[in-house]
Design goal:
The chain is globular. The termini are far apart. The chain has helices at 25-33, 53-56, 71-74, 113-126, 136-142, 169-172, 174-179, 229-238, 297-300, and strands spanning 2-4, 13-21, 41-44, 89-90, 156-163, 183-187, 190-196, 203-209, 215-225, 290-295. Helix 1 links the parallel strand 2 and strand 3 (41-44). It is built from nine helices and ten strands. The protein is an alpha/beta fold. It is 21% helix and 21% strand. A seven-stranded mixed beta sheet has the order 1-6-3-2-9-8-7. A three-stranded antiparallel beta sheet has the order 4-5-10.
Length: 301
C-alpha cells in the first residue's frame, strides 16, 4: 500500500507494529521480510518514486578535514535509495575485518563473519547474484580461464567479487511493496525528530515533515533506522529532546567513525612473462566474477 504523506491531513497520527525509516536497500529488504505476515509495517521514505531536486537538497551538508564528495551527490534521496546509482560490486567482509588488530585503533567487533553468513546468503537473491560462494576454486570450475597471477600465496591472495545487474531496488521491488496488504509505504515523509521518554530508553514517536507544510506523528512498537550511515547519525545527533548529546551519544561516538573505500596508488606489478589477466579485469557487461589482489592477514600486520 502506498500513501503520499503530502496528501494526508496535517498532524495525522500514523500507527503500526513496526516502523522502518528509509526505503533504500536495507529498509526495503527488511520490509519485504514482513510482507504478508499480518503485522502492520510502516515504511517511511523522505522522497518519492522519482528524483526530485528539492528533496535531494535535504542531503546537503559541509565536510571538514580530508576532501570528500559533496554529501548531496554521493547518496540518493528517493524510493530505492542509493541503489539508484550503485555500480553493482558485491563481496563479503573478510574474517580479519571483525578482529581486534593492534595496528588499527578501536578495531574489533562483538560478532564474526560467521554471524553474517546467513544474511549474506539471503541478500544474494535480493541483489540478483549467483551462488553465495566467493572462493576462487569454485568459480574456476565454471570459468577455467580465471587464472591467478603466480604470486606468493603467503603474501597475496585473490579476493573474489560478484556483480549485481545492478539491482535498482526502487524499480525491482516497487510493485511488491505497493501491492502489499500489510506494508504501508509513506513517501514524502522526512524524519526530523525522534521523541523518546525522559530516560531515553524508549521511543515514543517520530515527527515527519514534507515541503507541503505537513507534520505527522508516527507511533509503533518497534522502530528501525535505515537511512544510511551519515543520515542515521544526523538524525540521532539532532534529536536532543531528553538528552543534550543526541540519542545513543553518551560516549560522544555517534558519527565519529566514517567508512569509505580507500583507494590509493600503492604498488606496481611487473611480470617477467605474459600471463592471463582475465581474473582481474572487471567487465561489468558480462557480470562474470572477478578478483582483486589482497594482502594476507600476516602481511597486513
Amino acid at each position: 500500500m502506498h500513501i503520499d504523506a503530502r496528501e494526508l491531513d496535517n498532524k495525522t497520527t500514523i500507527e503500526g507494529d513496526l516502523c522502518i525509516v528509509g526505503a533504500g536497500a536495507a529498509g526495503i529488504s527488511m520490509a519485504l521480510d514482513w510482507d504478508g505476515n499480518g503485522k502492520k509495517v510502516i515504511l517511511l521514505e523522505g522522497g518519492g518514486f522519482e528524483y526530485d531536486d528539492k528533496i535531494q537538497d535535504l542531503y546537503s551538508g559541509n565536510s571538514t578535514g580530508q576532501r570528500y564528495y559533496p554529501l548531496r551527490s554521493c547518496r540518493l534521496h528517493l524510493f530505492g535509495g542509493t541503489t539508484g546509482h550503485w555500480g553493482g560490486m558485491c563481496a563479503p567482509f573478510d574474517p580479519i575485518d571483525f578482529k581486534k588488530r593492534n595496528w588499527v585503533p578501536d578495531s574489533g567487533w562483538p560478532i564474526t563473519l560467521d554471524d553474517l553468513v546467513p544474511f549474506y546468503s539471503k541478500a544474494q537473491k535480493l541483489f540478483e547474484l549467483d551462488a553465495y560462494n566467493y572462493d576462487l576454486p569454485y568459480w574456476q570450475k565454471e570459468y577455467p580461464a580465471l587464472t591467478p597471477f603466480p604470486l606468493d600465496k603467503n603474501i597475496i591472495w585473490s579476493k573474489m567479487w560478484q556483480f549485481s545487474p545492478p539491482t535498482r531496488f526502487g524499480k525491482s521491488y516497487k510493485e511488491t511493496i505497493v501491492k502489499s496488504s500489510n506494508i504501508h509505504l509513506y513517501t514524502y515523509a522526512n524524519l526530523t525528530k525522534i521523541v523518546t521518554n525522559n530516560a531515553v530508553s524508549n521511543i515514543r514517536e517520530l515527527l515527519v515533515k514534507n515541503h507541503a507544510g505537513k507534520t505527522h506523528r508516527v507511533r509503533a512498537k518497534k522502530f528501525v533506522l535505515a537511512c544510511g550511515a551519515i543520515q542515521n547519525a544526523r538524525i540521532l545527533l539532532s534529536s536532543k529532546g531528553a538528552t543534550k548529546k543526541g540519542i545513543g551519544n553518551d560516549n560522544d561516538l555517534v558519527g565519529r567513525y566514517f567508512m569509505e573505500h580507500l583507494e590509493i596508488k600503492s604498488a606496481e606489478l611487473w611480470l617477467k612473462k605474459p600471463v592471463s589477466t582475465d581474473l582481474y579485469i572487471f567487465d561489468y557487461s558480462t557480470r562474470k566474477p572477478r578478483a582483486e589482489l589482497a594482502l594476507t592477514d600476516e602481511i597486513q600486520e
